[in-house]
Design a protein that fits this description.
mainly alpha, Methyl-accepting chemotaxis protein
Length: 161
């Protein structure tokens, strides 16, 4: 602000106009633009500081810093949540891997049992076929013996008459 006393009324009016314009600029923009610059430089390291006794756009600078702090806090919470979910997903994947290995082992055991059953069925089939062959042979022998016995009886009965 210009404070000296002038003798020329035009210069006095000009001085008054400049002083009013300076006051208006201080109210609408800032008293000291360097305060905003210092705030933004400090914000490069952390967002804890705000401009005290704000004027003009300094209010907006404080609002901007506060908004950035809120966004960073939300991002931090999201990152923590994501990390927790990632740990849970890793644990689930490990459990799934273990479960799959157990199922593979179980299915391998079942395959071995099915193979043994198949072998036993093959053996049983062979045994059944052998028994069937023996039964058929026995039936044939029995039938032949019965036929011979009937023939002998027929011969005996013919000789008696």
């Amino acid at each position: 602000m210009l404070a000296s006393q002038l003798k020329n009324p035009n210069l006095t009016h000009f001085k008054t106009t400049i002083n009013k314009m300076s006051q208006t600029l201080c109210k609408s923009i800032a008293i000291d633009i360097l305060r905003i610059v210092k705030l933004f430089k400090a914000a490069q390291e952390n967002f804890k500081g705000l401009i005290p006794d704000v004027v003009g756009i300094e209010k907006n600078a404080n609002v901007l810093i506060s908004s950035i702090v809120k966004m960073l806090n939300v991002s931090k919470e999201l990152a923590i949540n994501l990390n927790t979910r990632s740990d849970e997903l890793n644990e689930s994947a490990t459990n799934l891997e273990k479960s799959a290995a157990q199922q593979v082992e179980f299915l391998t055991n079942i395959a071995g049992v099915v193979e043994q059953i198949d072998e036993k069925i093959g053996e049983l089939k062979e045994s059944t076929q052998t028994n069937l062959d023996i039964s058929l042979a026995t039936s044939n022998i029995s039938h032949s013996i019965s036929k011979i016995a009937n023939e002998i009886l027929d011969d005996i009965n013919k000789n008696k008459i």
